[in-house]
Amino acid sequence: MDNLEKYKNAFKEAFEIGDEIITDELAYESIPEWDSVGHMRLMAAVEDAFDIMLETEDILDFGTFGKGKEILLKYDVTI
Amino acid sequence: MKKFENISDWRESENDSRFFIDSARNDLAQFLREKNFVFIERTVQATIPLKASSDFKKFCRLPLEISELNERICEIAKKSFSQDVRFFISVPSIFSEKLLENFLSEMKTCYVCRVKNEIAGFIEVVESEENFSAEIRLAAVDEKFRLSGAALSLYAGAANFLREKNFRKLIGRISTKNIPVVNLYATLGANFSRPYDIYFRS
C-alpha cells in the first residue's frame, strides 16, 4: 500500500466515508463527521498509519486533506 | 432557572421568564405554550462512568494543571457562553454578561490546558463525595484552539483524575444541539438520560 492509500485510509477509518468525497479540498467542518472530536480521531489514525507523533501546532493547522499532505512532509512522509 | 413540575404550582411561578421541564411532560409543554412560552432547546444529562478499564489517558494530548479563576478563563467563558441559555436572556446584554460573571465568580478552581503556553481551555468540576460523583459546572475551549485536542484532554484528564480519587461518575448537562459536545461525551463512553426542555417567555 503506498502512502496515498494509507493517508486516504486514515480519513476513511476516522470518518467512515468513501473515496468519492476525498479531495484536497475536504476540510474541517465540511462534513458532519469532521468536528473537533472527529479531528482527534483523524490525527490518531494518521499517526498510526505513518508511525509518527504530530506536534500540537501541526494538529491545529491540519485543516484540509491537502494541507495534511504538506504537513506530513515535515515528518518525511511524501504523498 | 427553575424546574416547572406541576401546573398547580403556576401561581407561584407565573412571573418567571424561564423554565425547564421533563421532556416527557407534554401537558406542561402545552401549558407553557398557552402562556406564550417558546421552546428553546432540549438538554440531556451525560454521565461518563469512571471505570477502572477505561483508558482516558489516550485522549490526553495536552497536560492539565489546576488554576484559579483568572482573566484568561473569563475571556474564554465570555466568548463561549454569550448565548448559552443559562446566561442569555433574550438578546445578548449586560444582564447576560452579569449572570455569567456571577456564575464565574463562584468558581473555586478548575483544570486548564495550554497550547504554546496560552490557556486554551478550562473545565470546572464540582465533587460530591457522598455520591462518589462529580459534576461539570462549566467548560470551554477558545475557538482558535478547537482543533488542538484541548476539549478531549480536559474532559478525559478530569475523568482520569477523578477515577484515581475513586469517584465513579462524571456528569454534565448538555444541549442536544451541540453535536460536537455530544460526540465528545460519547467518545468517553457516556450514556445519556434525563432530557429536559427549556422554555422562555416570548
Describe the structure.
The complex is a heterodimer of chains A (79) and B (202). Chain A has 79 residues and is mainly α. Chain A has a single domain (3-73), classed as ACP-like (Non-ribosomal Peptide Synthetase Peptidyl Carrier Protein, Chain A, Orthogonal Bundle), CATH 1.10.1200. Chain A has 4 helices and no strands. Chain A is globular. In chain A, 29% of the residues are buried. The model of chain A has no long low-confidence stretch (mean pLDDT 96). Chain B is built from 6 helices and 9 strands, in the order E-H-E-H-E-E-H-H-E-E-E-H-E-H-E. Chain B has a 9-stranded mixed beta sheet with strand order 1-2-9-3-8-7-6-5-4. Chain B is of the alpha+beta class and 202 residues long. Helix content of chain B is 29%, strand content 35%. Chain B has one domain: Aminopeptidase, CATH 3.40.630. The chains are: A mainly alpha (79), B alpha+beta (202). Chains A and B meet through helix 2 and helix 3 of A and helix 6 of B.
What's the CATH topology label of chain B?
Aminopeptidase
What value does the average pLDDT of chain A take? Answer: 96
**CATH architecture name of chain A:** Orthogonal Bundle
Number of continuous helical runs of chain B: 6
**Biggest interface between chains:** A-B, 16 and 18 residues
The gyration radius over C-alpha positions of chain B equals 18 Å
- Helix percent of chain B reads 25-40%
Residue stretches of chain A low in confidence (pLDDT < 50, at least 5 long) are: none
Q: Termini distance of chain A?
A: 12 Å
CATH class of chain B: Alpha Beta
Mean pLDDT of chain B: 92
Q: What is the C-alpha radius of gyration of chain A, as a whole number of Å?
A: 11 Å
**Strand fraction band of chain A?**
under 5%
- Count up the domains of chain B: 1
Fourth-tier CATH superfamily name of chain A? ACP-like
Approximate strand percentage of chain B: 25-35%
Strand tally of chain B, please? 9
The sequence of SSEs of chain A as H and E is HHHH
